[in-house]
Design a protein that fits this description.
- Helix 3 (66-75) links the parallel strand 1 (56-60) and strand 2 (80-85).
- Helix 8 (231-241) crosses helix 10 (253-268).
- Strands 1, 2, 3, 4, 5, 6, 7 and 8 form an eight-stranded mixed β-sheet that branches.
- Helices cover 35% and strands 20% of the residues.
- By secondary structure, it is an alpha/beta fold.
- The longest helix is centred in the N-terminal third of the chain and has 19 residues, at 31-49.
- The radius of gyration is 20 Å and the shape is globular.
Length: 325
């Protein structure tokens, strides 16, 4: 194909360590747009997690700190939230934002969640919106996450479902693949859809020392670039904020322009009154930090605040679809 990239073997995904460099800086450059796009998922996921006043929480892959601040407002002054991210650039922004809003029960730390134990551990709760899919060795990484939690603490992570179940993504990649030779996807390789298989996630959690995993699907339309975006703005979002944009950038100018036009045409077919919207599937994963020797046996104890976590949350979001994979 005429527009193929010079390096057709370039990776379609990337690992956690890459967030410390270019990936983190790319997110930072579009942070407001990215947070607006992910806000409906974030709001539904925080509601699903059901935080209560007084809890001590660690937010893994906190980015610019939007989720961290939302959780801090729920746990209140007697609670505390630590935001952890491998990107120093994003943590600098998160700290700046927290200082500007004067949130007293929040702090941020630079570190690799696969290896570090943040100050304040062990925590009552571990939360992550799309921050756990990039570990090169997920089994070792989740074992480290378990060490961040107190016995009977609770893990809540949101991960994308399988790529095939996210039409917003496959539609974009079909357009790009008409002009660029894309690398073949590697199942379970670190990247956006690494944890899209529920059975794989359950196995990782069980081996890491978590009990009674519950997986709930959030299935709604995802607005490309955020609600209210026009097709051309959504196309710009894909090329400027998404990882696939780095592959398009390696092409000649004519190919880049053609990809942009074709993406805008795709999005025009999916434009609604609320913006460009295509179907998405996210998995909300909840598990208990089992006491030593009890992993996999089901843990229905209460945490130190007396909150019982054995049952899934009763809802996800207004109008949302719920089922157990």
């Amino acid at each position: 194909m005429a527009g193929s990239t010079p390096d057709a073997t370039a990776k379609a995904g990337f690992t956690a360590s890459e967030w410390a460099g270019d990936a983190g800086r790319r997110w930072l450059a579009s942070v407001d747009t990215l947070e607006r796009a992910l806000m409906p998922i974030g709001e539904a996921f925080i509601a699903h997690a059901g935080f209560v006043a007084g809890e001590q929480v660690v937010d893994i892959g906190c980015g610019g700190g939007w989720t961290t601040q939302q959780i801090a407002s729920i746990v209140g002054e007697e609670g505390h939230v630590a935001g952890l991210d491998i990107s120093a650039d994003l943590i600098a922004l998160a700290r700046e934002r927290a200082d500007a809003t004067g949130v007293p029960n929040i702090r941020f730390e630079v570190g690799d969640a696969a290896a570090v134990k943040p100050a304040g551990a062990p925590f009552d709760r571990l939360f992550s919106r799309f921050g756990t899919m990039f570990f090169p060795d997920p089994y070792a990484a989740f074992a480290n996450l378990r060490h961040m939690l107190a016995d009977n603490g609770r893990l809540d992570i949101a991960v994308w479902g399988a790529a095939s179940e996210n039409r917003w993504y496959t539609a974009i990649m079909e357009v790009v693949a008409r002009h660029i030779e894309l690398p073949a996807p590697v199942p379970r390789a670190p990247g956006q859809f690494a944890l899209g298989d529920p059975d794989y996630v359950r196995d990782i959690l069980a081996k890491a020392g978590f009990a009674a995993p519950r997986i709930t699907a959030w299935e709604e339309d995802y607005h490309i670039g955020g609600p209210g975006r026009r097709p051309d703005e959504s196309a710009a979002f894909v090329l400027e904020a998404m990882h696939v944009g780095t592959l398009v950038e390696e092409c000649d100018t004519d190919t880049q322009d053609t990809v942009r036009r074709d993406l805008a045409a795709l999005f025009a077919d999916h434009e609604t009154s609320g913006g460009v919207a295509l179907p998405a599937k996210v998995l909300f994963v909840t598990a208990d930090a089992a006491e030593e020797g009890r992993a996999g046996r089901g843990n229905t104890d209460r945490n130190k605040l007396g909150v019982r976590y054995e049952d899934p949350q009763p809802s996800i979001s207004p109008g949302g679809t719920r089922h157990e994979p």
